[in-house]
Amino acid sequence: MRRARSLSVVGMLLAGALGVISSTQTWIDVTLADGAQQTLAVPGADAVPVLTPLSLAALALGAALSIVGRVLRYVLGVLALAIAGIVGVATAQVLLTMPVSATAATVTEATGISGMDAIADLVSSMSLTPWPAVTLLAELLLAAAAIFTLVTARRWQGSAGRKYRSATDAPADTSRPHDAIDSWDDLSRGADPTA
Asked: Can you give the pTM of this predicted structure?
């Protein structure tokens, strides 16, 4: 089941990377009714403020999933599913309803005008770019990777961290006579060979 672990890790990493990239791209082009018909580009991080931190969290979950044991696989799978749900719902709202609130930070920064009613009066038109749809697909990928993790985690091979365990975890070999090297190993385990 090494392939299952790899698929889950790659899915989470890819979804997280797409989310981070999308947060820096233009999601909405806003035209203001200010006489000059100024057009502002609203990045994904402004349209969905949780996009960047939760995408970084998805990247971290994917990286951690490659080394954790069985119990933490389920914890990380649930966390990834929650992240996919939160970001997916927020992205779908922007994609389907294009709320003025998604443009508020950018409009306020450019004009100094704040308050939802004032911003709504100032915005004359809004148009979406493909990035919200790309982000929604990334969140679907993250949800699929999380569900796949939850379904297959039991059958994965042991954690990669096992090969780094110290000699204290290894049982002593009692099938042969005790020699000087075994005494050093006993010291490594914390036992006193002179006792």
From this structure: 0.76
